[in-house]
């Protein structure tokens, strides 16, 4: 219970906004995505009951400390990524810390070259340095992945180059394939190993026009998530050589990541690999239709300075920027969903600077029902709820 509730005070409109947004999205008839994390416990369990037998024999004994269904999931991931082995982790934060500290021990250099917008730097409370004794080194401050020239020009040595593919906080952006191969080569010229933060690597195949194993094959190790794009309950995998994965499993135990039983997460990951993974390219292609219609809709309704970034999304997720304060944009989005049952912008809005608001858009299975005209009409409804710019 909040302090206000204890004092018998009503929450402010701003404080009620997240709850209203969640409720409006649940009730909306038209959304661009319905992520599993917003479903009820009953709905999540029902999906596992219905889809689980299609991906694993549920009459088999449950796992204990990473065997059976967990081992089967690890084998499946290794096969998809073309690596010798893979290890299941309860979180991606743990998986990447373990991978990077294993590489630091092997290279003798605790410095990790990475982008300042990468997940460990923005969302993990400096865990690399505070927990694992690693030293982050920033390659570039540009809102894109580093270039080969920047890798070669980095003033200090580093043992590992970590690349987040796609770079979520820069707009889910990816480099061109030739740029990526040149960056990897530049790191190797400096005797560094390469690790991919591939939390969302699954949906990068369309942009690169390459298979998953070809993309993963550029790196010495790869981390992938099971819940961000595959709609699993939780969990991640670290993939690489057999010797690296065996080292990682030792550290996984030390970090408290070898859980007694993990079959619900493992089963949901197998379901995601079976059901969502094949559909991700379709989502990516339709996200480009949605993004184009958003730009057209904003221009037609008096907001030509609104921005979709990237203009052609690299994955099925992208950013929308508006010249309003976040609370103003958020209120318009929630009101549209409440009043029309169309949730065009279902995520939270955050500040991108004075008078600027940014939200992330995800196009999933539900979004495939939207035509470009549907999007343009929804933009008109949304902008009608924004205050006029003076």
Automatic annotation (TrEMBL):
This is Threonine aldolase. GO terms for molecular function: L-allo-threonine aldolase activity. Residues 65-295 form the Aromatic amino acid beta-eliminating lyase/threonine aldolase domain. Keywords: Pyridoxal phosphate. One of its GO terms (biological process) is L-threonine catabolic process. Pfam families: Beta_elim_lyase. GO terms for cellular component: cytosol.
């Amino acid at each position: 219970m909040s302090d206000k509730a204890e004092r018998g005070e009503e929450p402010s409109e701003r404080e009620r906004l997240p709850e209203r947004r969640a409720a409006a999205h649940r009730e909306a008839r038209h959304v661009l995505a319905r992520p599993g994390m917003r479903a009820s416990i009953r709905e999540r369990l029902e999906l596992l009951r219905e889809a689980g037998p299609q991906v694993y024999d549920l009459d088999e004994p449950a796992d204990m400390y990473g065997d059976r269904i967990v081992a089967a999931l690890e084998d499946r991931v290794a096969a998809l990524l073309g690596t010798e082995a893979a290890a299941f982790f309860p979180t991606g934060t743990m998986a990447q810390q373990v991978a990077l500290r294993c590489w630091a021990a092997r290279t003798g250099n605790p410095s990790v070259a990475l982008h300042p917008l990468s997940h460990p730097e923005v969302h993990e409370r400096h865990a690399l340095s505070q927990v694992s004794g690693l030293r982050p080194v920033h390659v570039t401050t540009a809102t894109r992945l580093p270039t080969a020239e920047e890798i070669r020009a980095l003033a200090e040595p580093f043992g590992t180059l970590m690349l987040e593919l796609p770079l979520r906080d820069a707009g889910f952006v990816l480099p061109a394939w030739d740029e990526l191969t040149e960056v990897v080569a530049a790191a190797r010229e400096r005797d560094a190993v390469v690790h991919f933060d591939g939390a969302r690597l699954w949906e990068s195949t369309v942009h690169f026009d390459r298979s998953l194993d070809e993309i993963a094959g550029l790196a010495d190790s790869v981390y992938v998530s099971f819940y961000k794009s595959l709609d699993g309950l939780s969990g991640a995998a670290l993939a690489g050589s057999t010797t690296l994965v065996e080292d990682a499993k030792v550290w996984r135990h030390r970090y408290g990541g070898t859980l007694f039983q993990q079959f619900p997460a493992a089963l949901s990951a197998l379901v995601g690999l079976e059901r969502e993974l094949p559909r991700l390219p379709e989502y990516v292609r339709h996200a480009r239709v949605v993004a184009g219609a958003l730009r057209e809709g904003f221009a037609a309704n008096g907001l030509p300075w609104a921005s979709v970034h990237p203009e052609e999304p690299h994955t099925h997720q992208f950013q929308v920027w508006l010249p309003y304060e976040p609370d103003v944009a958020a209120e318009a989005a929630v009101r549209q969903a409440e009043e029309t049952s169309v949730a065009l912008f279902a995520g939270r809005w955050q500040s991108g600077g004075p008078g600027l608001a940014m939200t992330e858009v995800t196009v999933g299975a539900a979004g495939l029902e939207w035509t470009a005209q549907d999007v343009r009409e929804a933009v008109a409804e949304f902008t009608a709820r924004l205050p006029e710019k003076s």
